[in-house]
């Protein structure tokens, strides 16, 4: 499809990128498709930075130390009347501190750390240093994993989303983190690791081979903990001599159903069980009583189920860790995986029901290159079907918040960002299940969702500098996508914040 250059520039920024910053459309209008492919060729994905953004292993070590301190404080507490602990816990929850009688800490509602009522803002709290012993008792300070989550959010919504010219790599980081979902509500370990998981297992492989990303994901402690693989023991392994422990199929099932082949990928229950046996022993080190790489992935040969195992008609000879690596590589290169990845990418960037010809092109690129993701992205950008100027896809809340912040240049406190994402229905890295958040318009276009977006738009519109003209803002950021009806509505606004809010709520801003 041939469009005027300014239309292609707007689509590059709004469909494939993060939205247009000040002057963004003008900056790329001479060669928008080439610049988009340049981001692919340069593997342009920003790196989140911050003093608290340590490696996953370092964060786990710090978490375990934090939990030991909380436990020690709890054990030192004198006996009190029955009502006192409940009152102390309630006060701690209100202040944002972790109750001494709860290692899970504050903000737990419905099993999700940090969850809150729509529009409710959490109290601002100070960051926890992992290098300096706190002055106040640990149990009186903000919940440590939540403080790390705030730092991770800050590094992205006030950092990486503002850096790229277009932001295709950052959008892909969001896409793949949702494809390989973990949920902070699982426990304190996943809560503190979710950002490190995205930094360590997703971002380095976004423009590489899918099989490398797959191996990094399935061996990361966050995924192993989230899907309980550290509890999986081979039925006839040396570690199960007493026969009291067993196989856990959670990770194996989601690898096949969600991460590679797809629900219609042609596998059977026997394949799931065989893969689960192959990846027994895939765990992480957390035994402080023995020397080892605390907080890092290890292969525990004693827990591994011995023998040959067959998955999808392929038999994998007994071979310790290499047995699992080979099985993952073959799943990554399977034709069903090519179709599944092609469909998900086309659905995410183009339409809920993408053109079959486009899906076929992406699958062909995937198969030809054995899962070279850059080749798949290039096929997507080169496809005419991807450049239809009709805006049909509703932005997911994470994309919507990112677009409001990037286009306006405002940088709210991370507490406000996390609260807004929760209110909008997409709490950061905390979906209800391993299938992640829905990627279709109907999931986000309900009247309740739209009402919450009004609150979000109003909140952020009032944080923009007073001298910004809403009409100029809409014209610059949306360019040729801006309709006459939207401009008329903005022009009739009684105040500048109201006009900016209308721009944020326009169909052109909410859809891509």
Question: What's the quick description here?
Answer:
Residues 72-138 are annotated as: Disordered. The chain has 23 helices and 6 strands.
Please write out the topology.
Blueprint: H1 5-16, H2 24-28, H3 32-41, H4 56-76, H5 83-95, E1 108-109, E2 112-113, H6 144-157, H7 168-179, H8 188-202, H9 210-218, H10 221-226, H11 250-259, H12 269-278, E3 282-284, E4 297-299, E5 309-311, E6 314-316, H13 320-332, H14 335-349, H15 356-368, H16 373-382, H17 397-408, H18 414-424, H19 447-461, H20 470-478, H21 484-491, H22 496-505, H23 507-510
Antiparallel strand pairs: 1-2, 3-4, 5-6
Radius of gyration, taken over Cα atoms and rounded to an integer in Å: 24 Å
Largest sheet report: 2 strands, antiparallel
Give the quaternary arrangement of the chains.
single chain
The assigned structural class equals mainly alpha
Supply the number of helical segments.
23
Question: Strand-and-helix sequence, N→C?
Answer: HHHHHEEHHHHHHHEEEEHHHHHHHHHHH
Mean pLDDT: 90
Protein name: DUF1800 family protein
Organism: Neorhizobium lilium
Pfam families: DUF1800
How would you characterize the overall build of this protein?
The chain is mostly helical. Among the domains are: 181 residues, no CATH class; 114 residues, no CATH class. 50% of the residues lie in helices and 3% in strands. The chain is built from 23 helices and 6 strands. It has a two-stranded antiparallel sheet with strand order 1-2. The protein has a two-stranded antiparallel sheet with strand order 3-4. The longest helix is centred in the first third of the chain and has 21 residues. The protein starts with a helix and ends with a helix.
